[in-house]
Design a protein that fits this description.
This protein has no helices and 11 strands. By secondary structure, the protein is mainly β.
Length: 122
């Protein structure tokens, strides 16, 4: 399975970005999809996760109400819509997939994308 993340970039505080993660190699219908992020000098943190049907979303407290994770089964793609961005959201964002029912723990991820950089200026 290959995961290809895209959509990162430079945005001003208060702006929006949408990240995409396209999966190839096999269908991910039975997987939980997740987004993590890693800021410079910090550990990789959980951001959001969703079951492939898109009906069981989970968010870190720091992004709840601002970010939305969703899936497109036909395109085998998961999205992360990020609104009201803050400078502290600056990080490399990684998508990941796991066969476990929950997606908060990075150690349980089976597959990782390559990361896409999000920079939020103040």
């Amino acid at each position: 399975v290959q995961l290809q993340a895209s959509g990162g970039g430079l945005v001003q505080a208060g702006g929006s970005l949408r990240l995409s993660c396209a999966a190839s190699g096999r269908t991910l219908r039975s997987y939980t999809m997740a987004w993590f992020r890693q800021a410079p000098g910090k550990e990789r943190d959980f951001v959001a996760a969703v079951g492939w049907k898109g009906d069981t979303a989970d968010y870190a407290d720091s992004v709840k109400g601002r970010f939305t994770i969703s899936t497109d089964i036909a395109k085998n793609t998961v999205y992360l819509q990020m609104n009201s961005l803050k400078p502290e959201d600056t990080a490399v964002y990684y998508c990941a997939a796991t066969q476990r029912p929950h997606g908060r723990c990075s150690n349980y991820m089976d597959y990782w994308g390559q990361g896409t950089l999000v920079t939020v200026s103040s």
